[in-house]
């Protein structure tokens, strides 16, 4: 995944720093509560929401079970419509393909639609190394790029920034990337949006190459779909002469009828709208409209390995709505950067460790970045049981071993033996209550627990003794 996250500390350390940032917590609390409340109202309008959710789950699950077949059909359909399909096993190959396609046009700059896949593979950095400058055109992505920042949310990458911070970024950085911010720019939303619009317009009119991702790919017709709220995506998809789309292989759906379900559930779950203001669809190329060359780069980058895990592959059902982030108490307090990935929040906690593996400290810590409250599962429009996958990944990490995990297994084995011997357990309980005044607040080996939690106080007598005296 993207090089901008290389060297990030493990989640507990990063979260500790983030929680101490009062401005960050205020920004996150305001934004997530606003979005979640609007989403709840939008979903409540549909009497058949539960049925739509189940339909989405089934479509995604059946597609993943026969993904090879649907991808081959997609390739045939895209090729028949005049496009070219490229297969990329990993990020390095995908970046090499895209850079080669851009170089073949003779261009040194591209405009981009907001894309999680291109962030995942670090495409902007790879293009920069080849002398190609990529311009983000989504407003939030533009803020992140101008501020030399990292995205912290799936839907609203600059959610950690307030209006005053955005104004300061525009004032100081816009001129380095093109048209500068207007004199006297304030933090009024309309002025900030107009400054971005003026800054980007010259890039739209000049660019010969556009790069996008896609929310969905329809195997039946070879159609790609991008949903967005600003119109910048449509500019990138229609004005350039060459369009290159980098899309994860899990984004395919078999038919147009399947797409109908997601065009109802995605906007309500993400932006709390009945439909997206801009739903752009394109099928290959046309002599009369749009780009004259279209390339689709199908990205694996660990997804095939995820497919092999029957429990973990639920994560590939994700349609990137971000509803789980907006209800997560951990994300609200820690923010997206603490996850060390372009996929933050609950979905990132189960997707990133599967795509990248759990060899690094940050990736091994992500499945523990949850209270397992289940709010993420309740709002997921494709019914991904995120808590189930989190526990599953924790089990895999424990099985992988290590000194700490060996001690944990030994402790659990000892506890199991004691629980199998009621008389020994009773004696231990009585000894513990009689010596409770001597118990340390931070027992040896329990620091990971007691750092953030208080040990429960032992009662004056064990429950079994109290029951024996009072049950009659």
UniProtKB/TrEMBL annotation:
Sequence ranges assigned to domain LUD in this UniProt record: 73-286
Residues of the Lactate utilization protein B C-terminal domain: 395-470
Keywords: 4Fe-4S, Electron transport, Iron, Iron-sulfur, Metal-binding, Repeat, Transport
Pfam families per record: Fer4_8, LUD_dom, LutB_C
Top-level taxonomy: Bacteria, Bacillati, Actinomycetota, Actinomycetes, Kitasatosporales
Cross-referenced InterPro entries: 4Fe4S_Fe-S-bd, 4Fe4S_Fe_S_CS, FTHF_cligase-like_sf, Helical_ferredxn, LUD_dom, LutB/LldF, LutB_C, NagB/RpiA_transferase-like
Organism whose genome encodes this protein: Streptomyces roseicoloratus
Domain 4Fe-4S ferredoxin-type, first and last residues per copy: 315-384
Name used for this protein in its record: Lactate utilization protein B
């Amino acid at each position: 995944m993207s090089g901008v996250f290389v060297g990030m500390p493990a989640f507990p350390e990063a979260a500790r720093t983030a929680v101490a940032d009062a401005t960050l917590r205020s920004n996150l609390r305001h934004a997530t509560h606003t979005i979640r409340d609007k989403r709840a109202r939008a979903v409540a309008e549909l009497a058949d929401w539960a049925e739509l959710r189940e339909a989405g789950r089934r479509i995604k699950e059946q597609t993943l079970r026969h993904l090879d077949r649907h991808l081959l059909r997609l390739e045939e359909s895209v090729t028949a419509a005049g496009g070219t399909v490229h297969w990329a096993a990993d990020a390095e190959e995908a970046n090499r393909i895209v850079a080669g396609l851009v170089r073949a046009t003779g261009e040194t700059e591209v405009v981009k639609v907001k894309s999680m896949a291109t962030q995942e593979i670090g495409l902007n950095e790879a293009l920069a190394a080849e002398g190609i400058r990529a311009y983000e055109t989504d407003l939030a992505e533009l803020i992140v790029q101008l501020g030399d920042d990292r995205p912290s949310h799936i839907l609203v990458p600059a959610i950690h920034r307030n209006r005053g911070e955005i104004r300061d970024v525009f004032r100081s950085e816009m001129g380095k990337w093109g048209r500068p911010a207007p004199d006297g720019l304030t933090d009024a939303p309309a002025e900030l949006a107009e400054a971005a619009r003026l800054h980007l317009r010259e890039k739209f009119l000049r660019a010969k190459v556009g790069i996008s991702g896609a929310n969905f790919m329809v195997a039946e017709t070879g159609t790609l779909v991008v949903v967005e709220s600003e119109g910048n995506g449509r500019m990138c998809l229609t004005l350039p002469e060459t369009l290159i789309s980098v899309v994860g292989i899990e984004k395919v759906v078999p038919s147009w009828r399947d797409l109908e379900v997601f065009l109802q559930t995605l906007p309500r779950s993400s932006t709390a709208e009945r439909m997206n203001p801009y739903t752009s669809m394109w099928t290959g190329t046309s002599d009369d409209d749009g780009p004259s060359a279209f390339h689709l780069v199908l990205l694996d980058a660990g997804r095939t390995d995820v497919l092999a895990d029957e429990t973990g592959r639920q994560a590939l059902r994700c349609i990137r709505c971000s509803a789980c982030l907006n209800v997560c108490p951990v994300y609200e307090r820690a923010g997206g950067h603490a996850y060390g990935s372009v996929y933050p929040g609950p979905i990132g906690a189960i997707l990133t460790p599967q795509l990248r593996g759990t060899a690094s400290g940050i990736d091994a810590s992500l499945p523990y970045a949850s209270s397992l409250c289940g709010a993420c599962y309740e709002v997921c429009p494709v019914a991904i049981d995120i808590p189930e996958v989190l526990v599953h990944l924790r089990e895999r990490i424990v099985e992988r071993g290590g000194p700490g995990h060996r001690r944990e297994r030994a402790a659990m084995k000892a506890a199991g033996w004691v629980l199998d011997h009621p008389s020994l357990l009773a004696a231990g309980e009585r000894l513990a209550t009689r010596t409770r005044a001597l118990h340390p607040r931070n027992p040896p080996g329990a620091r990971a627990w007691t750092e953030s939690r208080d040990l429960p106080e032992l009662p004056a007598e064990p429950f079994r003794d109290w029951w024996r005296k009072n049950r009659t």
